[in-house]
Amino acid sequence: MNRMQILSGIKDYFKIQELVCPHVHAKYGEQAWRFFDTEFLHTLFVVRHDILRRPMVCNNYHEGGGFSQRGLRCNLCQIVRDYTNKNQVSTLPHVVGAGGDFSIAGMTAQQARTAIAASAAALPCPIRMEDEVTWLHLDTLDTMTGRKVTLFKP
Fold first, then answer.
1. Which carries the bigger pLDDT value, residue 76 or residue 13?
2. Where are the domains of the chain?
3. Which of 82, 55, 61 is nearest to 19 (CA)?
4. Which terminus has fewer CB within 10 Å in the chain: N or C?
């Protein structure tokens, strides 16, 4: 799939405000799709459409919910500012458009991780998933291990 096909497919499942922080959405609106890594969008599409086949919630601030920093984060987001205030480099996948945190309808995070790992052959690229957390963190940062799925601890 090329980027235009991926964008067309992913928009059937996610609105841009679900995947970006409120600051980015306020400034860029629909143009914020450009900040996402193509491999991440392709992986997210495959996970949602082919593997889990269930609604996935990233940010829900636009619906009055409490999640606003689970997708793409900018320098104004508190999580990123906390790293900066501690003089830590912030190269989190959330900052570079290559990761997000999700809740899955009718499924625990562990069940989602297990299902994704069992379907690793369907993934378009290697992924990382955060283990032992109550949400599904999924990103496409290269682990340089050659493994299709890598679990890491918070």
1. 13
2. 3-152
3. 61
4. C
